[in-house]
Structures are given as C-alpha cells and as structure tokens.
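Supplementary Note 3. Input sequence used for the single-chain structure prediction.
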Amino acid sequence: MKKTEQKEEIIRYATFEDVSQILSLVEPFVRDGWLLKRSRRKIKKMIKRKELRVAVIEDSTGHKRKEKIKGFCACSIISFQKAELYFLAAKKGNPFLAERLIEKWMENLKILQIDFVFLTTRIDNRMRDTVFKRCGFEPVSLWKLPLGKLIALVSRRFLGRHSIAMGRNL
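The predicted structure, written as discrete structure tokens, is reproduced below.
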C-alpha cells in the first residue's frame, strides 16, 4: 500500500523548536547582505515576545508529522499607532509566501487598530517594487519613522548601505 503524502502550508507563531531552522534559512540572506544577522538569543527573544511568525509546510506521511520552515516575518509594535515589519525572508521559488506572511501580520495589526505600518529595506531590494507594492507599501518620508529608526537609517546611509523606508496606512 502506498502512503499518501499531504502538504499543507500554515502560518503560525514561531516556537523555540523552530530556531535552528530559522537560523539555517536566514544564513544565505545574511551572507549576501539582505538581512541583518540575528543571534540565537535574539531570535528566542522575538519568539518569547510573539514577534516572529513562520510559514511552514507540514508533511504528513502515515503517522509521521514533520514541519519545514519556508519563510518568516517579524513585527514589532512601536507605539499605539505604529508598527514595524522586519526580518522577512522566504525561500526562493515561492514569491507569494512573503506576501502571505505580511498580510497575516496586517490582519492582526488591523484588529489592534494600528494606523501605520512601516519597514526599511535596501534600496536595491527587488521586493520593494514587487512584494511590498502589492501589499500596499509605498516609499515614505523618513520623518514618519520613529526617531530611533530614523537615526539607524541615516547612519547606515553614511556607511554606504542605502536603505529606504516604505509604509502603509491601515
């Protein structure tokens, strides 16, 4: 008898058991300069605060159940009105996964009545004109950002790492 293989994509909050897979998935993005490096400790802190969501494919074959992480996205509530999306990555070959991760956070932020969501990205990031625009993000003035983010963005520019801010009203 042939066992049937069933694959289902689920977006859920990350757990401590996901840390190794997250670190493994993020490594090429960090190496190529697309994401900032996060330590195991920092990722565990994001998990504890419920700031990190993962997209997993659940493989069920017979009685075995295994989850494989395909992407992740973190969100931090900055104030009563603002939230930041960060630490977003999706495995290559699945361009709409990043959109689904973003939209899952948008659903939660609307419930919390957050007015404005922003993210910062490298100016040469292709997702700027595809994924982020399809999710409703547009370039915004740096002055819409919280002071701490503004300072970090400006200092990165002095180091030659040009980034832009993108935002979306909810």
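DSSP finds five helices and seven strands in the chain. Residues 3 and 62 are 6 Å apart (CA to CA).
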